[in-house]
Amino acid sequence: MKLIRLVVFLLAAYSSFSQIKLNKLNTNSIPKGIKYIGQIKNAVQWMDSLGNNIVITTETGEIATNSKDESRDAALYALHYVVNGDSLNLICKLYDFVKECPVDIKASYIKNTFAVTDLNKNGKAEVWLMYKTVCHGDVSPSNMKIIMFEAGKKHAVRGTNKVKVSEKDFMGGEYNFDEAFKKAPEVFRQYANQLWAKNIMETWE
After folding, report:
1. Which of 22, 56, 64 is nearest to 39 (CA)?
2. Whose CA is closest to 109, among 57, 152, 148?
3. What was the pLDDT predicted at 174?
4. What angle do CA 161, 162, 166 make, to 5 degrees?
5. How do residues 136-189 score in pLDDT, each as one tens digit?
6. Distance (Å, rounded) from C-alpha 183 to C-alpha 22?
7. pTM
């Protein structure tokens, strides 16, 4: 009987880790020791086998430079901390950017793609980030990436989105998994494929 109760308890605990419950943070509830650049797009907290996790994603938007051609910079960031009492441990960081762009510029997260999951049910959450970076003055595709953190390990999908250039013709849409993704559980690649397919078309927002 005791063995059965132990098994039931362990299964219940394991199941709870597969369901990530997020707590949204505002600027007042973010620990003072966490410094960030830009405007917050997502700020969340959750518990998993690593402990108390906080992830913050930000964008700078367009920043004017001092160049004569009126070029701009743009960047985005993501920070993943594990909090232990007053101790803040930065276990993973993302920084991507576009520099000195004199035409249309973008470094921004794609709407409704941020997610925290436990797809392989190992008690360690996966953090999903998807974004575009581009400097162009035409209708060419944008660079597009999916970055996934799991317990401080970074996985990446890199490619371009797809642009309709005529009634029947398109440009872009190709992508590749990095080695970390190729060696990861199949469920991660399935999720990434679905995420890419859902957001592949340029919407010109």
Report:
1. 56
2. 57
3. 97
4. 155
5. 988 899 999 999 999 999 999 999 999 988 888 899 999 999 999 999 999 999
6. 28
7. 0.88
Encoding tokens for residue 181?
């993704």
Residue 181 amino acid letter: F
**What are 153's two structure tokens?**
């390990």
Residue 82 dihedral angles phi and psi, to the nearest 5°: -110, 125
DSSP-derived 3-state class of residue 119: coil
Instruction: Determine contact, residues 175/161, Cβ cutoff 8 Å.
Output: no
φ, ψ dihedrals at 17, nearest 5° = -70, -25
144 contacts: CB under 8 Å, gap ≥ 6: 110, 130, 131, 132, 158, 159, 160, 161, 175, 196, 199
Alpha carbon distance 177, 195 (integer Å): 13
What integer pLDDT is reported at residue 205 of this predicted model? Answer: 66
Phi/psi for 164 (5° steps) reads -85, 120
Residue 34 token pair: 């966490």
Give start and end residues of each alpha helix (H) in the chain.
Answer: 2-18, 179-183, 186-198
> What's the chain's average pLDDT?
90
Task: Please return the burial class of 182, using the count of CB atoms within 10 Å of its CB with bins 0-12, 13-18 and 19+.
Answer: exposed
- Both tokens of 124, joined, read 């360690």
Tokens of 109: 């997260």
* Phi, psi dihedral angles at 200 (to 5 degrees): -70, -30
- Name the helix (H) or strand (E) containing 83: strand 72-84
